[in-house]
Amino acid sequence: MIPDKLKQTDQFLIKLLRDRISILSESEVPIEEQLSYIAPFLSQIGVPESVWENVVTSCLAVASNFSSVNNVSPRQITIIGGLGRMGKLFTQQLSAAGHNVSILEHNDWDNADKLLSQADLVLISVPIDRTIDVIKRTAKYLSPTTALADITSIKTQPVQAMLDFHAGPVIGLHPMFGPTVKSFLSQKVVVCPGRNQDSFQWFLDFIESQGSKLIVCTPQEHDRMMVIIQATRHFSRFSLGVFLAAERIDIDRSLSMSTPSYRLEIDIVKRLFAQSPPLCVDIMLATEDRCQTIERLANTYSQLAKVVAQKDRSALIEEFETVQNFFAEEIIQPTEKEYTLNALVN
């Protein structure tokens, strides 16, 4: 049962949030300014900055919707793969904002000229292994002024293909979230500029107005980072899931006596295996660099497993201290990083 004191506190917070959203809808205040002035006070009372950042981002997104809902200049948008899970998400969000969204699927290419030639934006949302072929096929129908973007999880090859086959505006996007989210609120989108980025400003503004944070980088930097952020992470959790299934572990029973960090890890593994199998596998196999890095990670597992089998305590401690020193080189402030690490180890 929820304590009355908690209910009263929540009701008070909701009223304050309503006032905060109302103020923001009347006057624009950059996120950075909203975060910086309050940081000392957050530190003083022990509230993690990540909590306040989520509040600020969410309020700003709602306020932006209030102030812009009647000021949308409708764009003609075609989403290739719009019936896929990510395609549906973008279709829903863009349509709800007042844009005219059309969908082109694999059996719609007879109507490609109608669906693509008049579009202000064409967004490619297809599996990794089909992206380059779809870019080549799409470019034949585009106007030189049509903005072309993709949302594939690799960027170097798709962005280069768009630049090679389309003379107009090009940008590579990677939404750092899955299709199960309800909105773009508090999500991150990596942006890899290609050509004539001004043509995409309305689209990027729309994504930000929905509460997303944009991170700009080159396609090459993106792909280097995703080897670690996506490929090796997927492999590690894929391996754990395979192991748990092979061992026939009673997951529910294990959760009944688990630590918070174990529950978090199991939840992440379960969400991984709730995805489309080809999607998960393609993330690991997308590039040769990913495959080679995963192989090196697996070799690291094997080497450490041999040390464990030999019960070489000193060698394991030495490895631990080496990594400990590696992470100690970073200056960790009481921010989201510290908050997350505390949650994982407690």
Commentary on this structure:
This protein has 346 residues and is α/β, with parallel strands linked by helices. Helix content is 60%, strand content 10%. The protein has 16 helices and 7 strands. Strands 2-1-3-4-5-6-7 form a 7-stranded mixed sheet, sandwiched between helices. Helix 8 links the parallel strand 4 and strand 5. Helix 10 packs across helix 14. It is globular.
In short:
The protein is of the alpha/beta class.
> How many separate helices?
16
Order of helices and strands: HHHHEHEHEHEHEEHEHHHHHHH
**What structural class should be given to the helix and strand makeup?**
alpha/beta
Distance between the amino and carboxyl termini: 25 Å
Largest sheet: 7 strands, mixed
Please report which band the strand proportion falls in: under 5%, 5-15%, 15-25%, 25-35%, 35-45% or over 45%: 5-15%
Strand order of the largest sheet: 2-1-3-4-5-6-7
| Poorly predicted sequence stretches spanning 5 or more consecutive residues | 333-346
Averaging pLDDT over every residue, what do you get? 88
The count of DSSP E runs of length 2 or more, i.e. the number of strands, is 7
Per the principal axes of the C-alpha atoms, what is the gross shape?
globular
Percent of residues in helical segments?
55-70%
Radius of gyration, in Å, reads: 23 Å
Write the layout of secondary structure elements.
Layout: H1 4-26, H2 31-36, H3 39-45, H4 49-68, E1 76-80, H5 85-96, E2 100-104, H6 112-116, E3 121-124, H7 128-139, E4 147-150, H8 156-165, E5 170-175, E6 188-195, H9 201-209, E7 213-216, H10 219-246, H11 251-256, H12 260-272, H13 277-285, H14 288-309, H15 313-328, H16 336-345
Parallel strand pairs: 1-2, 1-3, 3-4, 4-5, 6-7
Antiparallel strand pairs: 5-6
Helix pairs in contact: 1-4, 7-8, 10-12, 10-13, 10-14
